[in-house]
Design goal:
Helix content: 25-40%
Distance between the termini: 35 Å
Strand order of the largest sheet: 5-6-7
Order of helices and strands: EEEEEEEHHHH
CATH topology of the largest domain: Non-ribosomal Peptide Synthetase Peptidyl Carrier Protein, Chain A
Structural class: alpha+beta
CATH class of the largest domain: Mainly Alpha
Radius of gyration: 17 Å
Strand content: 25-35%
Largest sheet: 3 strands, antiparallel
Number of helices: 4
CATH superfamily of the largest domain: ACP-like
Amino acid sequence: MASASGVSMSLSSITCSFKKNQQVPISSLKSVSMPIKGKSFQSLRLRTGPSRLRVSCAAKPETVNKVCDIVRKQLALPADSEVTGESKFATLGADSLDTVEIVMGLEEEFGISVEEESAQGIATVQDAADLIEQLISNK
């Protein structure tokens, strides 16, 4: 059970409003949108792990699309190849050198610097887009 306090959650075509201290099961949710402490987050992604639930801020669709384009270009994929936020670099055929080149392309495109530790945690297009948004907001 999750506790929501005065929060409004939107799921595609479903909108739920929660009253103060109302408990809501979130096991079937995939993403939600809500303002937190005056900041509006486009969406929050809920990720289930082996024994825990992790909530992370998802990047804007424009950022994800830009990352998809950069990945396509770096891996010399056809323009019509399907690359989405959930696409894993390894599944797209990227080896470790390709992944380093992708990160370098992202740094150049977005004017950011990705530390090695952070770069090692990037496995999907969405991971990269989320990190970019985080680094941009920290500037």
